[in-house]
Amino acid sequence: MLELSNLNVAYGRAQVLRDLSLTVASGEILCLLGRNGAGKTTTMKAIMGLLPLMSGRIALDGQAVSDLPPHRVPRTGIGYIPQGRGLFAELTVAQNLEIGLMVRKSGPEVLEGVLELFPRLRERFRQRAETLSGGEQQMLATARALCLEPEVLLLDEPTEGLQPSMIELIRQVIVVMRDRGVAVLLVEQRVDAVLAVADRVAFIENGRNLETLDAAALRADHDILQRHLGV
Fold first, then answer.
1. Which parts of the chain span the membrane according to its record (predicted)?
2. Tens of pLDDT, residues 3-60
3. Domain boundaries of the chain, sorted by first residue
């Protein structure tokens, strides 16, 4: 289980997160919803140690990770697919995946399992990442995160700019990870995509928790979305 307890985070003098608390259980998809600037991406970066905490605690299965330097956070089992994907553009698909495998010293059987989820990457194995389409780059970023055999998977707007077939593939992989017991924290602007995969939805505004609801409640009552998001 991933636990965020009373996180306070700032960019310089501008505080973005204010006593934000969330939990994501193993085998659960929790989606973060909020207007632009609500603090969703900041939450992801704080978990990965890319932004320092003013106060608060981040723990995985009860063990604190909030004091770790960023390069050690993935070794605890937290995989991150950021906006922009963060690929090594001049490296090949194979080399990008090898970097993911190195994080926790995963073996070739892990790579084979990842390529079964993304067979197109097998076809592109020797191509440089910069030559891939946008959808293929999103596949590669996701596959690289899966190479470290994550216990927690963070995805920041993974379907942005993708065609419907790619969106469906990413959705299927997210569900597979959930079914394998991975805790998934998803930032997504597409409400339809959220309602298709989420178990629970957490609304945040101005860096604060508003409420967390079962996704079934949102599917049954769209007035909740109107109240929080204006959609």
1. none
2. 999 999 999 889 999 999 999 999 999 999 998 889 999 999 999 999 999 999 999 9
3. 1-70+190-231
For the 1-70+190-231 domain, the top CATH level (class) is alpha beta
Question: What's the whole-model pTM score?
Answer: 0.92
Q: How far is CA 63 from the centre of its chain?
A: 20
Confidence of residue 231 (pLDDT cuts 50, 70, 90): low
What phi and psi, each to the nearest 5 degrees, are found at residue 167? Answer: -60, -45
Q: Provide CB contacts within 8 A for 162, sequence distance 6+.
A: 134, 135, 138, 170
Q: Which two tokens stand for residue 3?
A: 């636990």
Average pLDDT over residues 109-118: 96
77 falls in which pLDDT band (50, 70, 90)? very high
Residue among 155, 123, 160 at smallest CA distance from 142: 155
Q: At a CB cut-off of 8 Å and minimum separation 6, what does 209 contact?
A: 19, 20, 21, 22, 202, 203
Q: Which residue in 180, 119, 111 sits closest to 146, CA to CA?
A: 111
Q: What is the C-alpha to C-alpha distance for residues 79 and 145, in angstroms, rounded to an integer?
A: 5
